[in-house]
């Protein structure tokens, strides 16, 4: 006899799924709407996708988002890798170090964004791309760190001992054994950091400086002029890219355990 | 002309090792000294936690000794890191690199030693052939069975032709049948390759079958070292006697000039040079059943088990305690359970051990 289930389990699950995904589904459906007014359906079309491809401000914003995400994710991944290696063995203050590393996950982003803005302004740091990369790097570190550390914990120290035993010194062991085994975790960490940076609005909004936009900032300002099907299309593209990358990172993280 | 004897393959001098600090310090190896001859199959045998792995790791260089010195073929390696020691290890978990193929695993050490490509290819081929793993060269470790992984681990450790091979319970992950096969293979391999083997096990049968010499360890000390025959037939410690094979231990008082008065009052004619409290040990196969009243001891037969090649009798001594007796001819008539019988204990089969 199968264990008795609570009544309405299936119905509840469907409700929750609808609650989570109906808004997104509506957005995607309307991104294929031919009507100028975003909320009135006439007939299907991919016009808006064509439009966003040739819109120069969207192109510029997308390019900025991409540059920031690549730079910030790379820097964050390198730092996270070093941090993960450094916190591998037990030492006094290891727990505290990890807490500090993961702090961006719990600090309210608005507070950090405002604080960073005030700091940069008072130091005379020019707002714009550089400032945004620096700030994005900081909050991306935990996203890169967690998969790397998880992977590192899964690699038993015996592999490294075996490499030493087979005459590889510390540097060679790192190159030939530790790093190849760690690689899927590093890729997963990079991808998560990349997506996190790509989706960020608050920090970018505060640190963009005049005349500078990223995709999320562009969407925000465009929406103030009214909801247009164009925004639906950009959002759908961002959604697909994010989902693909996160799936990729999940897949990499589980690769060849 | 005098010949200098070759220095031992491995020489360990008064090595001690503790884990933990201050009041948590725990001494795992206590003043261990031993010499392993060249081409010897030497086994460390002892119960779990007695420090076998730690001693092996000290020789490999994964741990550093608190005091003492370790030399390999006469060269002091105490301060050398593992990658500068001419020894290789077969790990209990094999530790094959999962991201490399079988042949890449075996080639690893040769590449690190800077050997030429052709020479590496030849040597890898030989090593895999010797372990009958040539057909699996392109596979990854995850695609091999336990026994096959074991063979690859051996091939990988033997390929650089180390002076000493360290093996930490390499057979413990295999099932009984494969284990027996691998035991024979290991022994043949060691004789063929002419390499010194330092083998760790807590399986006494395995130790006796394979080794030229065995060191029995207990709580970080070596209690006795010798050939399997010496260890089995002439144990010097109660612990060694008890750990290896079945044995009967009878407590008593050493009498000056020979003989032991057991706690039951019986005097056994056992030769010794001891005094005070002692234990008399006798193997089950050395005692014989005789009619009641004619043996050195009296006992009641509790249970007899037919083993095919022998009968194993379990007897109860009147003062309490059981006595095991192995009758080598199972066809010989045996008394029924519950009968009183006598035990004949030949003097030369009795070992007197200090307590
Ligand atoms: N890194 C370590 N830190 C603290 N204690 C340790 C460490 N390594 C081993 N020990 C302790 O040292 C003792 C001996 O360990 P060791 O692994 O040498 O035993 P062993 O004889 O190989 O046992 P087994 O047959 O179970 O493998 C054990 O009590 C163990 O708990
Ligand atoms: Mg061990």
From TrEMBL, chain A:
<keyword id="KW-0813">Transport</keyword>
<feature type="transmembrane region" description="Helical">
    <location>
        <begin position="233"/>
        <end position="252"/>
    </location>
</feature>
<keyword id="KW-0997">Cell inner membrane</keyword>
<protein>
    <recommendedName>
        <fullName>Spermidine/putrescine transport system permease protein PotC</fullName>
    </recommendedName>
</protein>
<feature type="transmembrane region" description="Helical">
    <location>
        <begin position="12"/>
        <end position="32"/>
    </location>
</feature>
<dbReference type="Pfam" id="PF00528">
    <property type="entry name" value="BPD_transp_1"/>
</dbReference>
<comment type="function">
    <text>Required for the activity of the bacterial periplasmic transport system of putrescine and spermidine.</text>
</comment>
<comment type="similarity">
    <text>Belongs to the binding-protein-dependent transport system permease family. CysTW subfamily.</text>
</comment>
<feature type="transmembrane region" description="Helical">
    <location>
        <begin position="177"/>
        <end position="195"/>
    </location>
</feature>
<dbReference type="InterPro" id="IPR035906">
    <property type="entry name" value="MetI-like_sf"/>
</dbReference>
<keyword id="KW-0812">Transmembrane</keyword>
<feature type="domain" description="ABC transmembrane type-1">
    <location>
        <begin position="62"/>
        <end position="252"/>
    </location>
</feature>
<keyword id="KW-1003">Cell membrane</keyword>
<dbReference type="InterPro" id="IPR051789">
    <property type="entry name" value="Bact_Polyamine_Transport"/>
</dbReference>
<dbReference type="InterPro" id="IPR000515">
    <property type="entry name" value="MetI-like"/>
</dbReference>
<keyword id="KW-0472">Membrane</keyword>
<feature type="transmembrane region" description="Helical">
    <location>
        <begin position="99"/>
        <end position="121"/>
    </location>
</feature>
<keyword id="KW-1133">Transmembrane helix</keyword>
<feature type="transmembrane region" description="Helical">
    <location>
        <begin position="66"/>
        <end position="87"/>
    </location>
</feature>
<feature type="transmembrane region" description="Helical">
    <location>
        <begin position="201"/>
        <end position="221"/>
    </location>
</feature>
TrEMBL record, chain B:
<dbReference type="InterPro" id="IPR005893">
    <property type="entry name" value="PotA-like"/>
</dbReference>
<feature type="domain" description="ABC transporter">
    <location>
        <begin position="10"/>
        <end position="244"/>
    </location>
</feature>
<dbReference type="Pfam" id="PF00005">
    <property type="entry name" value="ABC_tran"/>
</dbReference>
<dbReference type="InterPro" id="IPR003439">
    <property type="entry name" value="ABC_transporter-like_ATP-bd"/>
</dbReference>
<keyword id="KW-0547">Nucleotide-binding</keyword>
<keyword id="KW-0067">ATP-binding</keyword>
<keyword id="KW-1278">Translocase</keyword>
<dbReference type="InterPro" id="IPR013611">
    <property type="entry name" value="Transp-assoc_OB_typ2"/>
</dbReference>
<keyword id="KW-1003">Cell membrane</keyword>
<comment type="subunit">
    <text>The complex is composed of two ATP-binding proteins (PotA), two transmembrane proteins (PotB and PotC) and a solute-binding protein (PotD).</text>
</comment>
<dbReference type="InterPro" id="IPR008995">
    <property type="entry name" value="Mo/tungstate-bd_C_term_dom"/>
</dbReference>
<keyword id="KW-0813">Transport</keyword>
<dbReference type="InterPro" id="IPR003593">
    <property type="entry name" value="AAA+_ATPase"/>
</dbReference>
<dbReference type="Pfam" id="PF08402">
    <property type="entry name" value="TOBE_2"/>
</dbReference>
<keyword id="KW-0472">Membrane</keyword>
<comment type="similarity">
    <text>Belongs to the ABC transporter superfamily. Spermidine/putrescine importer (TC 3.A.1.11.1) family.</text>
</comment>
<dbReference type="GO" id="GO:0005524">
    <property type="term" value="F:ATP binding"/>
</dbReference>
<protein>
    <recommendedName>
        <fullName>Spermidine/putrescine import ATP-binding protein PotA</fullName>
        <ecNumber>7.6.2.11</ecNumber>
    </recommendedName>
</protein>
<dbReference type="InterPro" id="IPR017871">
    <property type="entry name" value="ABC_transporter-like_CS"/>
</dbReference>
<dbReference type="InterPro" id="IPR050093">
    <property type="entry name" value="ABC_SmlMolc_Importer"/>
</dbReference>
<dbReference type="InterPro" id="IPR027417">
    <property type="entry name" value="P-loop_NTPase"/>
</dbReference>
<comment type="function">
    <text>Part of the ABC transporter complex PotABCD involved in spermidine/putrescine import. Responsible for energy coupling to the transport system.</text>
</comment>
């Amino acid at each position: 006899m199968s264990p008795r289930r609570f009544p309405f389990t299936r119905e509840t699950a469907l409700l929750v799924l609808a609650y989570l995904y109906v808004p997104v589904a509506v957005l995607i459906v309307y991104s294929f709407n031919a009507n100028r007014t975003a909320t009135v359906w006439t007939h299907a079309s991919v016009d808006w996708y064509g439009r966003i491809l040739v819109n120069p401000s969207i192109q510029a914003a997308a390019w900025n988002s991409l540059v920031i995400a690549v730079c910030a994710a790379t820097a964050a991944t390198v730092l996270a890798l070093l941090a993960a290696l450094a916190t591998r063995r037990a030492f006094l203050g290891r727990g505290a170090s990890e807490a500090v590393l993961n702090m961006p996950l719990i600090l309210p982003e608005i507070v950090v964004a405002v604080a960073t803005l005030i700091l940069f302004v008072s130091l005379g740091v020019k707002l714009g791309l550089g400032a945004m990369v620096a700030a994005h790097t900081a909050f991306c570190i935990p996203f890169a760190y967690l998969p790397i550390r998880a992977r590192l914990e899964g690699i038993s120290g015996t592999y490294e001992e075996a490499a030493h035993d087979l005459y590889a010194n510390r540097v060679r062991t790192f190159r030939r054994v530790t790093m190849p085994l760690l690689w899927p975790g590093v890729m997963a960490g990079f991808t998560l950091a990349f997506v996190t940076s790509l989706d960020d609005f608050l920090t970018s909004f505060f640190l963009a400086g005049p005349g500078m936009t990223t995709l999320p900032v562009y969407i925000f300002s465009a929406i103030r002029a009214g909801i247009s099907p164009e925004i639906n299309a950009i959002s759908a593209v961002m959604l697909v890219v994010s989902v693909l990358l996160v799936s990729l990172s999940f897949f990499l993280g589980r690769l060849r355990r | 002309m005098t010949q200098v004897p070759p220095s031992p393959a491995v020489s360990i001098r008064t090595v001690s090792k503790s884990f933990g600090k201050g009041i948590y310090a725990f001494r795992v190896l206590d003043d261990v000294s031993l010499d392993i001859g060249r081409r010897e199959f030497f086994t460390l045998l002892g119960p779990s936690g007695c420090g076998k792995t730690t001693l092996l790791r000290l020789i490999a260089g994964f741990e550093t000794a608190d005091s003492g010195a370790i030399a390999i073929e006469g060269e002091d390696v105490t301060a050398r890191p593992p990658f500068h020691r001419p020894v290789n290890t077969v790990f209990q978990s094999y530790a094959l690199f999962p991201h490399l193929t079988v042949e890449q695993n075996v080639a690893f050490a040769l590449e690190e030693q800077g050997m030429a490509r052709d020479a590496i290819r030849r040597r890898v081929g030989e090593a895999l052939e010797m372990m009958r793993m040539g057909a699996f060269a392109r596979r990854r470790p995850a695609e091999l069975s336990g026994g096959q992984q074991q063979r690859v681990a051996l091939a990988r450790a033997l390929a650089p032709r180390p002076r000493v091979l360290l093996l930490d319970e390499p057979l413990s992950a295999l099932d009984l049948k494969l284990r027996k096969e691998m035991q024979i293979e290991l022994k043949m391999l060691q004789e063929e390759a002419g390499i010194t083997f330092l083998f760790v096990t807590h399986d006494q049968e395995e130790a006796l079958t394979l080794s030229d010499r065995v060191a029995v360890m207990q709580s970080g000390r070596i209690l006795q070292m010798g050939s399997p025959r010496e260890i089995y037939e002439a144990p010097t410690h109660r612990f060694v006697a008890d750990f290896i094979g079945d044995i009967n231990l009878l407590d008593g008082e050493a009498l000056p000039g020979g003989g032991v008065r057991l706690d039951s009052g019986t005097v056994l004619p056992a030769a010794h040079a001891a005094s005070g409290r002692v234990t008399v040990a006798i193997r089950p196969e050395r005692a014989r059943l005789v009619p009641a009243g004619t043996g050195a001891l009296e006992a009641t037969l509790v249970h007899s088990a037919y083993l095919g090649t022998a009968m194993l009798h379990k007897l109860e001594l009147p003062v309490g305690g059981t006595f095991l007796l192995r009758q080598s001819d199972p066809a010989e008539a045996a008394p029924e359970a519950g009968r009183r019988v006598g035990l004949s204990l030949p003097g030369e089969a009795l070992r007197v051990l200090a307590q």
